[in-house]
Amino acid sequence: MKLLEQKIMAEGKVYPCDVLKVDRFLNHQIDVDFLCEIGKEFYNLYRDCGVNKILTIEASGIGVACLTAQFFHCPVLFAKKAKTSNLSDKVYEAMAHSYTHNTDHVIRVSSEYLSKEDRVLIVDDFLANGSALSALIELCKKAGATVVGCGIVIEKAYQDGGNLIRGKGIRVESLARIASMSPEDGIKFC
Ligand code: 5GP
Fold this sequence. Notes:
The strands form 3 sheets. The protein has a 6-stranded mixed beta sheet with strand order 4-3-7-8-9-10, sandwiched between helices. It has a two-stranded antiparallel sheet with strand order 1-2. A two-stranded antiparallel ribbon has the order 5-6. The chain has a single domain, classed as Rossmann fold. Helix content is 33%, strand content 35%. The model has no long low-confidence stretch (mean pLDDT 96). By secondary structure, it is α/β, with parallel strands linked by helices. Guanosine-5'-monophosphate binds at residues 19-21, 27, 57, 60, 99-100, 124-132, 161.
């Protein structure tokens, strides 16, 4: 998506340790009009797949998931990282490794909101090594739900996640694919 590449070039900052900061429009401040365009793009890619639920992980995935769901007219379910007292006892759980915090944690959704009737589009902001997507896919598997595919805003294609998830036979559509990036040489797209 050309517009997204231009936005990343104009507003993104490359940090050491393979982290791209896009806090101006995606991860801190949210450019709602722009994320609506992202949502429209995911809708155009998956409109014929019978999507009836969008699944993401808190917190950064929620904004883009909601702005995508308005086109599918379906609910958004986000996996929680903390076991809060208001989460029902019957939950599906999976283990994920946080790329940005470098910690392992359990993510969970209530079994009330994910079932074998669901045809799920998984949406997230970034794809790096694929741990977040793998955990979300596992939640769907435990619920018997069908994963129709994944919609990623920014894939760092030089990392392993894309191959890992596509290797499981799951469709992954990324709107911007970064071939390489570094603080010295900047960002190059695929
Ligand atoms: P993965 O699980 O694929 O290794 O990493 C994906 C998750 O880590 C995303 O949910 C995202 O929040 C975070 N992440 C991975 N790489 C980056 C990055 O370069 N910048 C930011 N802001 N988040 C990232």
